């Protein structure tokens, strides 16, 4: 019994790190796929269908990495095996999967040919902001960001970057200049959103009148994801980002009258003097 318990005690803390390793593996796989596309993209014999398929998989690998990243954190909390090593390893893996991988993918897909120096500025800026976001999360994970995120989480930021690639490749639509300019502005904006103070939900909060209704809603969502994964992923990440921004803007606007009234109240005694 002691041997079995000791084996369990050794294996259980390793399980979340295995999912983190899977996250890192698929992030690296996405980067290598993007590099392969960049190396062969100018060859005349390559069919457009092959390129669409390769780009689709390069984006899908990041989505798989995001799914594994969601599992490793929850598994660590369930097994009560959270550690500083796990947090650091997870952040390093996230930097590769949700910082470097989507940056390389977007650059090869829409920015490499015509963006010039602007593309070389926008993509590294996004990656640096992802690194800063993850470093700040390491410091604040047990305090400020224990129950909610401060700034857009890096997996969602990566989703904003790669989900259009999935959607366009599914319908075999090539990126044009409008898409290029979209990413030239969106990549820095997404980077700034990661290092901002905009709060985002850490766990989804849904209220249902009963378990049957929850089951019906879950069935509809799962069916939609299975039948239209590209559309649902695109809509989900952009809706998550937009809702957080709107709520933050409403709260900031609601605070402005209070602050002006306080300033007026402070000035009144000085004027009387």
Task: Describe it.
- Helix content is 79%, strand content 2%.
- The chain has 273 residues and is an all-alpha fold.
- It has one domain: Four Helix Bundle (Hemerythrin (Met), subunit A).
- A two-stranded antiparallel ribbon has the order 1-2.
- Helix 2 packs parallel to helix 4 (84-111) and helix 3 (48-79) runs antiparallel to helix 4 (84-111).
- The protein starts with a helix and ends with a helix.
- The mean pLDDT is 85.
Could you say what the CATH architecture is?
Up-down Bundle
Q: Give the CATH topology.
A: Four Helix Bundle (Hemerythrin (Met), subunit A)
CATH class: Mainly Alpha
Domains (count): 1
Question: How many DSSP H or I helices?
Answer: 9
- Percent in helix: over 70%
SSE succession: HHHHHEHHEHH
Relevant CATH superfamily = CDP-alcohol phosphotransferase transmembrane (TM) domain
Secondary structure elements and pairings:
Blueprint: H1 2-11, H2 14-40, H3 48-79, H4 84-111, H5 117-140, E1 148-150, H6 154-170, H7 177-194, E2 199-201, H8 211-227, H9 229-272
Antiparallel strand pairs: 1-2
Helix pairs in contact: 2-3, 2-4, 3-4, 3-6, 4-5, 4-6, 4-7, 5-7, 6-7, 6-9, 8-9
